[in-house]
Amino acid sequence: MKKGWTVVIVTALTLAIYIGFSFFQPSYTYPLLDPRFDAHQYAKAYNYFKGYNATYELSFPFHTRVLMPWLAAHLPFNDLKTDFVWLNGIFIVLTVALLTRV
């Protein structure tokens, strides 16, 4: 089998597994989580980049972690959980494809 097909097959398999995992994984209920969980900080950043909050007030060290919430806020789903699930899936599939290629 050629190397290119191996990357395609592994990437497709990774995508299928991730879609299954994201469908069956339990969902967070943010108000029920302990306020010390980092999910609340990422939700605040996401809400700021979506335009729901006027100020960017996050605690250390989350105030410098802007890439993932910023990217998630630009996805078209307008739902915190859905945007982060898709964004994580994109990065997982790209990472597996790159590692398989290397």
How would you briefly describe this protein structure?
With 102 residues, the protein is mainly alpha-helical. The protein has four helices and no strands.
Task: Please describe what this structure looks like.
The chain is elongated and about 50 Å long. The model has no long low-confidence stretch (mean pLDDT 86). With 102 residues, it is mainly alpha-helical. It has helices at 3-24, 38-50, 67-73, 80-101. The longest helix is centred in the first third of the chain and has 22 residues, at 3-24.
- Overall pLDDT confidence: 86
Q: How big a fraction of the residues is strand?
A: under 5%
Radius of gyration: 16 Å
Oligomer: single chain
DSSP strand count: 0
Which residues form runs of ≥5 with pLDDT under 50?
none
Q: What is the terminal-to-terminal distance?
A: 16 Å
Shape: elongated
Largest sheet, strands/sense/barrel: none
Percent in helix: 55-70%
* Strand/helix succession: HHHH
Tally of helical segments:
4
Estimated structural class? mainly alpha
